[in-house]
Design brief:
alpha+beta, globular, 3 helices, single chain, two-stranded antiparallel ribbon
Length: about 160
C-alpha cells in the first residue's frame, strides 16, 4: 500500500520517504477497526480482542527504518512477533512518537512481544495483510511460521572485469 502511494513518491523526491510509512500508519489507524487475533507461541495460546497491528519479523526495522522491534536479530534463529492493540487517538500518537524517537514502545501493556521459533497467528475476520511488502488483500489468516536450518552452499566463479 505505502510503496505504491503518491505520497511516497513525492516524499522520496524530498528525501523524506520514511515519513510515508508514518502517514500510512495514521491512515490505517483512522480506518482500521480492532480485530480478534489468536497467537500460539512458546507453548501457550493468547487471544487479543483489540488487535490493530500484527507483524512478524526477524529484523528490528520496517518501512524505511521504523523501529517496530528494536531487539529483533537476524542471526538468533528466532522470529519476533509484535501485537499492538488498538488505542485511543491520544495514546496512538504517544506510541508513534515514542516508537520513532526511542524504540521503547514495547514497554507498554498494549504492545505484546513474542520471540519464538514456532508461531501460529489466526484471525476469524477478514483483515488486510502483507507479506514482505506485497499486498495479500483482505482475508482471514491462519499462518504458521517455523524456523528451520537448511544447508547452504556458496560457490564463486572468476569473472572478468569489463574495461
Amino acid at each position: 500500500m505505502t510503496n505504491n502511494s503518491k505520497s511516497k513518491r513525492f516524499l522520496n523526491k524530498c528525501h523524506l520517504g520514511s515519513l510515508s510509512y508514518v502517514f500510512s500508519l495514521i491512515q490505517a489507524f483512522t480506518s482500521q477497526d480492532a480485530f480478534q487475533v489468536t497467537v500460539k507461541a512458546n507453548g501457550s495460546v493468547k487471544n487479543f480482542s483489540r488487535g490493530f497491528l500484527v507483524t512478524t519479523t526477524n529484523h528490528p526495522y520496517f518501512g524505511s527504518g521504523v523501529p517496530i522491534m528494536p531487539s529483533a536479530r537476524v542471526d538468533d534463529q528466532k522470529l519476533d512477533l509484535v501485537v499492538i492493540e488498538k488505542l485511543n487517538v491520544f495514546f496512538f500518537f504517544c506510541y508513534l512518537f515514542i516508537m520513532m524517537l526511542t524504540g521503547k514502545h514495547t514497554r507498554y501493556k498494549t504492545v505484546h512481544h513474542f520471540r519464538t521459533d514456532d508461531l501460529v497467528i489466526r484471525t476469524q475476520t477478514l483483515e488486510f495483510g502483507q507479506v514482505d511488502g506485497e499486498e495479500m488483500g483482505s482475508r482471514a489468516f491462519d499462518m504458521h511460521f517455523k524456523v528451520t536450518s537448511q544447508p547452504f552452499w556458496l560457490t564463486t566463479t572468476k569473472t572478468e572485469q569489463f574495461k
